[in-house]
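Example 3.2
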Amino acid sequence: MPMKLHLATTVALAALAAPLNAQTAAPVADLVKRVDIPYQQFTLPNGLRVIVHTDRKAPVVAVSVWYDVGSKHEPKGKTGFAHLFEHLMFNGSENAPGDFFEPLKQVGATDLNGTTFFDRTNYFETVPTAALEKTLWLESDRMGYLLGAVTQAVLDEQRGVVQNEKRQGDNRPYGLLQYSIFGGLFPQGTPYGHTTIGSLADLDAASLDDVKGWFRDHYGPNNAVLVLAGDIDVPTAKTLVTKYFGKIKAGPKSVRPTVTIPTLDQPKKVEIKDRVAATLVTRLWAVPGLGEADAPALNAAASVLGGLASSRLDKTLVREDKLAVQASASVSSFAQIGVFQVIMVVRPGADVAQAEKRLDEVIADFVKNGPTADELQRSVTTAATRRIDGLESVGGFGGKAVALAEGALYQNDPGFYKKQLTALAAQTPESVKAAVQKWLTRPVYAINVVPGPREASTDVAKEAAPVPAAPELKPANSRAEPAPAVGAVGNLTFPKVERTKLSNGIEVVYAQRTAVPVTRALISFDAGIVADPSDKLGLQQLTLSAIDEGTAKLDGVGIAEARERLGLNFGGGSSADRTYISMTAPSANAAPAIDLFGDIVRTPSFPEKEIARLRTTQLAGIQQEITQPQGLANRVLPKLVYGASPYAKAASASGDPAAVAKLTRDDVVGFYQAWLRPEKAKLFIVSDQPLATLKPLLEKEFGDWRGTGTAGAKAVDTPAQQVAPKIVLVDRPDSPQSLILAGQLTGLPSGSDVLKLRTANDVLGGSFLSRINMDLRETKHWSYGAGGGVGQNQTYVTYTVSAPVQADKTGPSIASIQQDLKDFFGPKGVTSEEFTRTINGATRELAGRFETASDVLNAMLDNDQYKRPDDYYSTITAKYRAMTREELDAAARSAIDPSKFVWVVVGDAKVVRSQLDSLGLPVEVVPAASVLGAK
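Structure, written as tokens:
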């Protein structure tokens, strides 16, 4: 399970009463004072604290269990234990043996995962209301009845998985930086002095007695917070929680370690060599953690200095001086300490020393003079607006359950999120200046990551012995309460979709969601990657990057500041066939937000100086891309699958560097006029406001829009022609892992309904429990995660397998995938158990899949592009229930032919090449540096 930090900043916003037609931003105080997540709480006699938030918008409940144990509790020699145990908790319990994902998949769980960080370990899932009782039984079983299911085989299996998770992170560019940050900023042996992932050697040393002791010491009910958020009330929660958790005995209470904020004796600078395309410069200070008086001021400071689009660092270093392609500041706030971090990616070709000098000057000026009142207002508005997004999700990585649990666990206050926001809004230029002068004038810890060969790691895992398959355990019947059944789950109620047109013919596709006072608008243009000129690949991306850098009214900084005052989030992107420009804003600011959105979309000025700057940034990004395993593979595979078809341009979506270097403002204006024009546009809106209220605003901004010049025409007549099966090995020296990609162009025609194929693939490669993942991750522990997916554009359907694996198991991993495919498409198709699990999961998870407005918006886009009816998802339950096992097998076998797969491996050729000879396919080796020039 991935490790992620989620600060207690996700909040909910009550309905705003500000008039929609106001042409100025709603006062930030209105945004802040109405933030609220009502809750009630109770505590069982065994110490389990339970927090309940009622939200009836959908028939789902978020179940979130947070344990007061993280990597800061690990003693010397046992680094990585907390995270390792998180994995073990997913391998079944005494009365629910086997993979924990199995029963949760059956009940239709979404947002299902677990994470570990310094201060906590959490487990969470969002389930249909009818499955809540079953889910609480499962969570209580792994809290109170786990150890009988923790065997040596399970420990060895998950140890290998975690070690590959570490290798996967280390294999990324700048992947070693985290070790230097925590190992150098904090004294060795102190709670925050090592990373959560730990060391390979310590993981190897973990014994079965060690991990069982860890459970007994930290996983008692009195050491946990349980949050239930969604379609639930307190009486129901008390009944169910008492029934299933009440008999679990209390255990030892985790002792919060003593933590002091370290101050370096003198400035410290470290240089790390890595296979990166650009030098990364950091400035770091240890600062107070959550709940400390200076924390809100430091968060505001980081936002103004380097968090806003209009930040001091971006304005000076990126826009004006052009010494950097990226500059930012942030605070990682933990329960007992924080890290104030400034990061700059130096522009390739720029003088690093000069860039560092200028960076330090900007920081020093900010420390001396502090922020302005306007900067603080924009910072608070931006923060409050971001937190609104947390309102829609009751669970997951950043929903309402997270805000309540963090506050309860870290500050003994579920409502702490509200105090944080209030404190942030109360900051003044003077309070922020005082905080930065107190904390950022101390000796700085500077780390530079520079291009060069990595030093050989001293953290090496011992050679893993073959791990026998974990014996299949039977339910131990070690508790009185039997597993409850899942009640009936109703059909999905998808929002009604309405369509209308503006005066100039632009179609508006609208759905109403009233859970949050937010308006989301997206313009979809019939363009996409295939519209990029073949001799100017990267032009679309440059155009999208530059579109908000100036209009007839505002320059780029002015646009950024206007967006921040409104809480408007602006973005652009593309798929193979569509180009998107989008905005999200509080509905209280919908009128001025749509006005600004229209100005950006309709009247971009594309300033020459910004085109030149962004062209350089794009070139730097391309160079960074090819230092990454995924970036290299993505540049190779589409050309092998699509051949001369325009869809092969996906390999160069970010651009051909030779072409990008020559792009001009005229090119950008030409692409904009040809493709980003009203005749090619559709507007998609999801909002709490009715269409009748929004349409006049859209009409005012877009109704009289007319295209300029000749519209672009796609040249997609050249058919795709996949190459003959082979392995292309991209040599990336010193890679601790290899990335395996395999692809095939299926024979399915354009416009195919691939629902049955996707459903069949859930068994083969599309879920955690899929055969490919369970084989490479859980059985062989050679990978942190592997699988396969169905890709679809307007013309073709593809199938792709992806598997990052430890380098010394590259060839065997391909052989294992080939065997999995052979079995699935041969005598071992979808089993009755797999079929039942897949259909149960697909039908029961629908309410959770479309919980948020962004989920609904994406579904509307897909329905429109693939010419499905607007009520497609309202009828999908019946489609799933009508499927048969034989139909799923037939759908997969008619589309996918493993003998036609073409393979791409990104890894260290001196380690990998000899492993590929026995696979029966020709092998072509290409240096990573040559990928950009490959045709």
